[in-house]
Amino acid sequence: MESIALLIAATLNAGTLLAIAALGLLINERSGIVNLGAEGMMLVAAIAGFATAVHTGSDWLGFAAGMGAGALLAAAFGVLVIWLNTNQYAAGLALSLFGGGFSAFVGISYTQAKLGPRPNFAVPGLADIPFIGPALFRQHPLVYGAIALALLLGWFLYRSRAGLVLRAVGESPESAHALGYPVRRIRLAAVMTGGALCGLAGAYVSVVYTPLWVEGMIAGKGWIALALTTFATWRPARVLLGAYLFGGVTMLQFHLQGQGVEIASQFLSMLPYLATIAVLVLISSNANFIRANMPASLGKPFFPGA
Predict the structure, then answer these.
(1) In a domain, 77, yes or no
(2) The dihedral sign for the CA sequence 244, 249, 254, 257
(3) Which of 19, 41, 148, 174 is most buried (CB neighbours < 10 A)?
(4) How far apart are CA 98 and CA 69, in angstroms?
């Protein structure tokens, strides 16, 4: 039972960074913009957050630095694809490649750096409950913050006027423009918000999840977060469930190794990516289902006045 509780706790921890990044990408895509640069943004945010935490001793300042780095890169991407009408897919891939190289260069001097003593978090009165306490109530505050973010985003998209406008921009930017909404500025705000959340996820990896800096440490999590938006059919609650599913698959490899299961470690390392491919194949088999939920203008350029 203790090992199962630890597996659940690790699943929540691993799923949190995927959930935060995927929710940010969901905001992007709800506005009609596809950003394939999540991996690069998360890497730059990871080194920005780690370096800030090392020099200031504050994890929260590290998170703020990661969010700032992610938002800044997303703003540059937004200018390219929203105002200059460059190809969204090519620009996103370029951002991902840039982030990988830039973070490796900047992070050279931080490969041996260490953060101070890590705080232990526990919900008073609940953390001591057998099984439930270790599994659910000894998590970093951002674990609970990710759940709150998914609920808040669900309310924003489907219960608020601003969320309705954002969805309208993603469905038909021409109609939103004709009604007088500043489509380009709305899309840039969505892209920067998504970048900030990807940055927060990247900083979480280097400051809390690991915590250290290693070149390429995001290790494909940005791509999994991107796949999660399709897996969840652009719904925040489903993003959260999908993140925990993939987090559980990721942690399962370590759990099985700890239990002495004799399976090649290389195969276990492939599990999260095999699960990603399998889920996308199953979802993509129903084109009508995808089409009914996908923002109609996703990935399409918008030319005001054209």
Answers:
(1) yes
(2) positive
(3) 41
(4) 13
